[in-house]
């Protein structure tokens, strides 16, 4: 009997040892939700991720996000990363070193952070957002990696967020003296990614808000030619051009307001429409930044 009991204990020992090992294995690689007992106490960090800009005047917009985020989360570690390698290399030449999202995540991991709220400061959930989501989450699959990672949506995710951003442009960017028959043309970036459809929805929301507010994109649809045709048909005499991008950077300066014959300003003027470019990025508008802050709040609630 004693012998049998011993044997049973032995079997159960192996059984529990096996169970323990599989739980351990699960904790070390297959779940991004496991908390390491030795370092689970560290508060979550925030990682803000944007395309980036090398234009000095555009930096003000990103500084505004930084200031507002620090005010909203005063006790939380805040880091930045740029997704554009070209911009990062340009800045590095002038001694300004900015991390890629992967570098920033590796740094946080190295410093023992186990929870990170990654916030996309992109406008639409396009290719850069996809890449961000996949690559940052990989850090949750490493042994002793970051246990919990939340990736917050970019700016435009539903009708409400579109309306807030559009209204912010109307109220805070467009001069009060603008007449109803003067058009507003918002310059979106546009993409080959299926999320380009966001810009068509944005155009629809813009039209509901103000029949002379239009959306055109640099690299996708609606195209500038689409909008130009409508302005000519409607006999519009004057149009305000506004970048619908986080910063008034390279596209706004050159493609929108530049002196070249194929800039939007030049193209409008060649069809007899007075063009008034306004160099203000979305990130300079507090209601827009508040949308990103709201996303971070949601992430932090899930992480705590
Ligand atoms: Co571009």
Chart the SSEs and their pairings.
Layout: H1 2-30, E1 45-50, H2 59-72, E2 78-82, H3 85-93, H4 101-110, E3 115-120, H5 127-137, E4 148-152, H6 159-172, E5 183-188, H7 197-209, E6 213-217, H8 224-233, E7 238-243, H9 250-256, H10 264-270, E8 274-277, H11 286-303
Parallel strand pairs: 1-2, 1-3, 3-4, 5-6, 5-7, 7-8
The site of cobalt (II) ion has 2 residues, from loops.
Description:
The protein is an alpha/beta fold. It has eleven helices and eight strands. It has a four-stranded parallel beta sheet, with helices on both faces. The longest helix has 29 residues, at 2-30. The model is unreliable at 7-34 (pLDDT under 50). Bound molecules: cobalt (II) ion. Cobalt (II) ion binds at residues 189, 251.
Gap between N and C termini? 51 Å
Mean pLDDT reading = 90
Query: Regions with pLDDT < 50 over 5+ consecutive residues?
Result: 7-34
Beta-strand content:
5-15%
What composes the largest sheet?
4 strands, parallel
What integer value in Å does the Rg equal?
25 Å
How many strand elements?
A: 8
Tally of individual helices: 11
Q: Which percent range fits the helix content?
A: 40-55%
- How are the strands ordered across the major sheet? 2-1-3-4
- What is the 3D shape? elongated
Which ligands does the model contain, each kind named once?
cobalt (II) ion
Which structural class do you get from the secondary structure elements? Answer: alpha/beta
Order of helices and strands: HEHEHHEHEHEHEHEHHEH
């Amino acid at each position: 009997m004693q012998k049998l009991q011993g044997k049973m204990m032995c079997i159960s020992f192996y059984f529990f040892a096996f169970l323990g090992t599989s739980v351990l294995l699960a904790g070390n690689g297959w779940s991004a939700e496991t908390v390491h007992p030795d370092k689970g106490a560290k508060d979550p960090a925030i990682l803000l991720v944007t395309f980036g800009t090398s234009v000095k005047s555009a930096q003000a917009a990103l500084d505004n996000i930084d200031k507002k985020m620090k005010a909203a989360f005063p006790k939380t570690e805040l880091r930045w990363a740029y997704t554009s390698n070209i911009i990062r290399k340009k800045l590095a030449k002038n001694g300004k070193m900015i991390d890629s999202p992967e570098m920033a995540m590796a740094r946080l991991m190295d410093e023992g952070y186990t929870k990170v709220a990654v916030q996309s400061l992109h406008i639409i959930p396009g290719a850069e957002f996809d890449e961000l989501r996949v690559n940052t989450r990989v850090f949750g699959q490493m042994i002793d990696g970051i246990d919990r990672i939340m990736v917050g949506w970019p700016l435009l995710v539903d009708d409400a967020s579109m309306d807030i951003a559009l209204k912010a442009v109307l109220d805070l960017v467009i001069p009060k003296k603008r007449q109803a028959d003067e058009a507003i043309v918002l310059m979106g970036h546009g993409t080959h990614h299926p999320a380009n459809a966001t810009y068509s929805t944005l155009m629809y929301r813009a039209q509901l808000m103000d029949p002379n507010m239009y959306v055109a994109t640099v690299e996708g649809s609606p195209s500038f030619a689409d909008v130009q045709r409508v302005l000519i048909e409607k006999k519009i005499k004057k149009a305000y051009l506004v970048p619908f991008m986080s910063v008034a950077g390279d596209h706004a300066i050159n493609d929108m307001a530049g002196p070249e014959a194929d800039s939007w300003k030049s193209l409008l003027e060649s069809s007899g429409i007075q063009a008034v470019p306004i160099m203000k990025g979305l990130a300079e508008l507090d209601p827009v930044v508040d949308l990103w802050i709201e996303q971070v709040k949601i992430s932090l609630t899930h992480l705590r």
